[in-house]
Amino acid sequence: MKTKKKTGRRLKRDWRTKIDVTDVDTFLEEKRLKERIGDPFSDKKDEELFHIDTSGKKRKVQKPKKSLEAPLKCLSSLQSSSAIVPLSKRSVKKVNKNKKNEDFDKNIKPLKKTIIKKKDAKELNKILKSKVKMLQLKETSTKDVFNKDLWSSYREPGQKKEKLINNVIKWLPHEVLNHNAKILPKLSNKKMFHPNQRTCEADDMKCPHPGLSYNPTIEDHVSLLSNIAEKESALIKHEAHINRVTQSLFKQVSKDKHEKMIIEELTEGLPGFTNDSNIEVNEDTSEFKAINPPTTRDNKKTIKKRKIQRRLRNEERQRMNAKIEKKKISDLYRLRYINKELDELENSTNKKKVKRLQKRQMGNISTRRLGTNKFTESMDTFTLPKDLKGTLRETEPQGNIFKDCFESLQKRNILSVGKKQLRINKKKVQAFMDPKFKVTPSMLAEYNL
């Protein structure tokens, strides 16, 4: 028998322990289930659960197949659309109606799509190959003379890509080949050219800055002057850096002092040029002299001094060991920071690799420098705000259009960059006397020969 728990009856929470609440819980659970699933099927009507499908199956209307005799749509522009009968009839090649479409196979359907997948193209090629084999067998069966070996394949030796053109598609007309050249490039030798394909990889010629016009807006003119000022400040900064690195590092010495220093360096150690002031006279004329003076009984270290030295040495050693142990602990705490540093280093190296690859790819696509000389951009021409005029007659001509075009060609690596040649190197003409020419003594005297 279970013993009843004794509980207090003073407060409300004490009374709740004795109350049975199972019916409330079941009611709430049923309500939650209805909210999740919905009302039960017994309460719903048949119209809500079912619906009658009255729509029948629509029959697909088969479109009539286009006859193969009909002319191609792409050749409609070549046919005459006028109602006037031509004066002279053209000579039309006679074709026997009985022989027409004898060799055509019904399994091969006309190509309707503009683009065909590789799988479809392979299947079409297989059908064509089988058709050619059938035609070859028919020819060999009718003829008595066999020019080709039956056991050899249709592909002749040395043929790879042109095997379809030479052997398989002989029975197809030329119009069909040109029409389907986009779908199957193997059907014709003609190479298709895409309109977006670029012949030259050089950059296009950039338009000049709008602030360079004779009547620019205020914003364009201000932006031009700011760009020129930035370039000029960068050049001044670069020159100042070079002066700081080269000239300011070395001391500036006068010319006389510099010559004196050179003479002193060259005459050092020579007997006639030694300075008396630098000579030290030694009283001891003995040949051998010890660096450390000899110890005596008076100068001898005591036991106390030696103990102090030993104690100090041990203390220093202990201090160094403590420092090493402390550094080991600090390195352990620093491991997480080291991992972060390594991750950052890996990210930076990966970014550099990607940049290098992109640069290499751009180098393969873009143009390369033609000559040895590097291109240097000239400063843009500009006019100050006070010099701007309202009319074209009053403006002063600045710059040169031909020079700008020439520099743009050099910048885009279309022309090689050259250097200015101040003197033309002409070959010296060598003078010599023809042996047939008769020389007189008067001529020799005249030219002092």
UniProtKB/TrEMBL annotation:
Entry keyword Coiled coil: yes
Role played: May play a role in ribosome biogenesis.
Major place of residence: nucleus
Any one Gene Ontology cellular component term annotated for this protein: nucleolus
Name of this protein: Ribosome biogenesis protein NOP53
Top-rank taxon: Eukaryota
Record's keyword annotation contains Nucleus: yes
Keywords: Coiled coil, Nucleus, Ribosome biogenesis
Organism: Sipha flava (yellow sugarcane aphid)
Gene Ontology MF terms: 5S rRNA binding
Single Gene Ontology BP annotation: ribosomal large subunit assembly
Protein location: Nucleus, Nucleolus; Nucleus, Nucleoplasm
Stated family: Belongs to the NOP53 family.
Any coiled-coil regions, as ranges: 305-332
